[in-house]
Write a structure and sequence with these properties.
The chain is an alpha/beta fold. Helices cover about 35% and strands about 20% of the residues. The protein has 27 helices and 30 strands. The strands form 8 sheets. It has a 7-stranded parallel β-sheet with strand order 3-4-2-5-6-1-7. Strands 24, 25, 26, 27, 28, 29 and 30 form a 7-stranded mixed β-sheet that branches. A 6-stranded parallel β-sheet has the order 8-13-12-9-11-10, sandwiched between helices. A hairpin with a 2-residue loop joins strand 16 and strand 17. Helix 1 packs across helix 3 and helix 21 packs parallel to helix 23. The relative contact order is 0.07.
Length: about 850
């Protein structure tokens, strides 16, 4: 993939977006080095966001990449680019690297280190990477051996003088589909620059975004907008879409028809006609037919059978995609010329690119305009082989075609077409005026929206005959960051109180209240309920800690490796193969012979880099240098001949590492295990909660914590009612927490935080304290190694789980063969013996 030069209409948007962010930078800079957090917050929430709306295929991704690349040349900014689905992350990364090679392209899974933060660095990820409950998402938010947690990374970046930029592709999906996305956006990212991009803009989505995050987008008049006409003139989009629906003259006959089969048949006829036209025109392009079915495997199977049995498509040319959202496999299918038909579910109408597609059979489409916009987007794009030729190719190739099994879906298409056509040709210059005024050396911020006037002396505001300072005005906001004034009616209040009747005009004076104010008060309140540590629970528990990786970790790691037993592997440069020869025209038995093939140094080097030289917090080049010095020393000490060149020595080392994949990994485990120290975890005197928590008799703070899962709640209730339990404590995971009991020696440096710390009457080991880990059935085998973990003072960690949701808790034991087995029903007496 090579860089694509932006077209004239795209360049206009790129320039204006860059200038808009540049103006915003000047406002931040004008606050000076001692700027107040509240002033920055006002600017962010009122001016940081710009929304770019553009029909699918008109280059909004290119515009976004070029804009952030151009702006990054003038600002110390770190970007987080959120793709709508995991399946398009790779596609976005490729586009960024090709279009903006000057940016620093970082991996969210491996490059979360302060040293990697450079001007214009870009992380590409999805909301699920940071806000889902998956293991990867949890690890991404935690600081550990893999690097800084995303939260800490952002904090570090700000301390080093970077500002934070966010790009959200298909913005309407991110904040709706990903639970917790808006909270992460507003409370963790707190971006200084935001570019939201979408092909399906809706005023309601913009209002919801503002309500959830506090960041103002503004109305359509403030959005950057690309028209369909601009895309058509640039030959990025087809001239139009033609939709066919089927009407039966006799309603009795209509009951006997399968409109799905009619739509498929007519769509196939048009598909084959387009295929012939492309061939006769001399364009080497196989068109693609899309078939959209209702959710359900039966619908996919029925469509596949009709396409292959009745319409005579070869089975190899018809593929189906059943995932809930687009993935790389679907994108690959859309580009494979051997595939003529792709069947996909309604659920993934959004977000995948099919430039070969001319036709679509919608077997049962929804009637809303969102469905229509996505259907149009799949077949509106012009393939690269046809760009620049739209004026000379046959007219039939200038259109896309939709065949509707459900004639009512025509309504959704018509509404979609109307909305796309109404997208104005508009640049993103309309923005609230966020003015910074310096009075007596103090920076003040004013946000002036359309129709409002600017106060030359913002330090005082007249309110009901009295005076109120700007700080007070800033604190009284309408939820969008806009300063509140008596009698002012805002869109957000209208939204919140649309059905409130007489309560609609809530903003009547300083003493008024509203649902929004009450929500803000609840959110701002802290320590409404305080729960003290109960008598008998110690203020300190023993825990293992793993210090940060030393600066010379590469040299330390090399010193832990003994190459002597594996030196012979450096000469094994050939491998044995069996060559089987058979005659394709005769059924004779095949002839086998042994051959030897020389290993590829390039392949060996690549495998060594991937498996043996990749460790957290270790520099690969420094590690390779240290390992070569260590190998050279072993060769000299053993009386072996040392390679004459550095290249030969490197190749011998890489061959040893590939033939002994665990050599460096085991050394790293020994190194880190030797660095584990036993220290104290300090339990706080009390914990705070903004809501009342259910009381518990034996819990360390007299309550059941909110962080308990279903099985954990059931088990905690058992602990709380057991007479042999003196107290129990919910152990919160956290490598950076000083309050958690962790284990590191068990795995050579991987942190493990058991769910419960339990003090038992008359238990001899560990001063009566036992550690318990609760695991659901789905995680037992995945994390079975934890069943062998031991604490230096408290002994074995007991792994407990249930086979069935309604069943008894069972103990699980790890055998010497590494198998996890059921060790019987859980009983408290079992905790007395490790």
């Amino acid at each position: 993939m090579s860089r694509v030069a932006p077209l004239k209409f795209q360049d206009k948007h790129i320039d204006v977006l860059t200038k808009r962010f540049g103006t915003l930078k000047e406002r931040y800079d004008s606050l000076g080095p001692s700027r107040s957090g509240s002033a920055v917050e006002v600017i962010r929430k009122n001016s940081a966001c710009v929304l770019l709306q553009a029909p699918t295929g008109s280059g909004k991704t290119l515009i976004g990449i070029e804009a952030i690349a151009k702006f990054s040349a003038t600002e110390r900014v770190i970007w987080f680019w959120f793709a709508p689905f995991a399946g398009v992350v790779s596609q976005t990364k490729l586009a960024l690297k090709a279009q903006a090679p000057a940016l620093s392209h970082l991996e969210i899974g491996s490059d979360r280190k302060a040293a990697n933060l450079t001007q214009g660095a870009v992380f590409v990820l999805t909301w699920q990477t940071v806000v889902s409950t998956s293991k990867d998402a949890r690890l991404a938010r935690q600081t550990g051996d893999r690097g800084l947690g995303v939260d800490d990374l952002i904090d570090t970046a700000r301390k080093e003088g970077f500002r934070i930029g966010v790009v959200v592709d298909e913005a309407h999906h991110g904040f709706v589909k990903a639970s917790g996305a808006s909270k992460f956006f507003a409370e963790v990212l707190k971006p200084d620059y935001v570019l939201l991009m979408t092909a399906t803009p809706r005023d309601a989505d913009a209002a919801a975004f503002s309500k959830l995050t506090g960041y103002v987008i503004g109305g359509p008049s403030e959005w950057a907008s690309v028209t369909r006409e601009e895309g058509v003139k640039a030959q990025l989009l087809k001239t139009s879409i033609k939709a066919a629906r089927f009407i039966a003259k006799s309603q009795d006959d209509a009951q006997l028809l399968k409109f799905e089969e009619v739509a498929l048949s007519e769509c196939a006829i048009m598909h084959r006609h387009i295929k012939d036209q492309l061939k006769s025109t001399g364009v080497d392009l196989v068109p693609l037919m899309l078939v959209q079915v209702p959710n359900g495997d039966d619908a996919i199977a029925a469509a596949h059978k009709y396409l292959t049995d009745t319409l005579k498509f070869s089975p190899e040319s018809v593929k189906s995609h059943t995932a809930a959202e687009p993935d790389p496999n679907l994108l690959a299918l859309a580009r494979d010329p051997s595939i003529e038909v792709i069947i996909f579910k309604m659920a993934i109408a959004t977000g995948f690119d099919a430039p070969r597609a001319f036709t679509l059979a919608a077997l049962r489409g929804a009637r809303d305009k969102a469905f229509g916009i996505q259907v149009v987007g799949r077949i509106l794009r012009v393939h690269k082989l046809l760009q620049g030729k739209m004026d000379v190719i046959p007219p039939v190739l200038r259109y896309g075609y939709v065949f509707l099994a459900n004639s009512e879906a025509q309504e959704g298409l018509r509404t979609a077409a109307t909305e796309i056509n109404q997208m104005p040709e508009q640049l993103a210059e309309a923005t609230p005026s966020t003015v910074v005024t310096i009075v007596a050396g103090q920076a003040h911020v004013q946000v002036v929206h359309a129709g409002q006037t600017l106060s030359l002396l913002p330090a005082q505001e007249e309110v009901d005959g009295g005076e109120v300072s700007l700080a007070e005005v800033e604190e009284s906001t309408d939820g969008t960051g806009q300063p509140w004034r008596p009698g002012m009616q805002t869109t957000l209040f209208d939204t919140l109180n649309a059905d409130a009747g007489a309560e609609k005009s809530l903003v009547a004076g300083l003493g008024s209240t509203s649902k929004l104010v009450e929500a803000f008060e609840l959110e701002a309140s802290t320590a409404l309920y305080r729960y003290a540590r109960i008598p008998g629970v110690p203020k300190e528990l023993e825990t293992e800690k793993l210090p940060k990786t030393a600066d010379d970790v590469e040299q330390q790691l090399a010193n832990y490796i003994d190459f002597t037993p594996v030196l012979a592997d450096r000469g094994k440069i050939r491998t044995k193969l069996t060559e089987r020869m058979s005659d394709v025209f005769a059924p004779d038995a095949p002839e086998d012979r042994d051959i030897f093939a020389k290993l590829s140094p390039a392949a060996i080097a690549e495998k060594a880099r991937q498996s043996a030289l990749s460790f957290p917090d270790a520099d690969r080049r420094e590690l390779l240098k240290s390992l070569k010095a260590r190998l050279k020393g072993c060769l000299l000490e053993g009386g072996f001949e040392v390679p004459e060149s550095e290249e030969e020595l490197t190749q011998q080392l890489e061959l040893i590492l590939v033939r002994n994949e665990s050599l460096v990994r085991n050394a790293f485990k020994r190194l880190r295990a030797d660095q584990v120290v036993v220290t104290k975890a300090h339990l706080p005197e009390a914990i705070d909660s903004i809501i009342p928590l259910p009381p518990a008799k034996r819990a360390s703070y007299g309550i059941f914590p909110v962080s308990l899962g279903t099985d954990e709640i059931k088990f905690a209730e058992m602990l709380d009612t057991a007479g042999c339990v003196e107290w129990w404590h919910r152990n919160v995971p956290g490598a950076t927490s000083a309050e958690s009991v962790g284990l590191y020696s068990w795995s050579g440096g991987t942190g493990f935080y058991p769910d419960f710390v339990v003090k038992l009457k008359d238990r001899k080991e560990g001063d009566g304290i036992a550690l318990i880990e609760i695991k659901g059935r789905h995680l037992l085998q995945y994390e079975k190694a934890k069943a062998a973990a031991r604490h230096p003072s408290y002994g074995r960690v007991f792994m407990v789980g249930r086979v069935k949701p309604e069943g008894d808790f069972r103990l699980w034991r790890l055998t010497s063969e590494g198998e996890l087995v059921d060790d019987g029903k859980f009983e408290f007496v079992r905790l007395y013996h490790s």
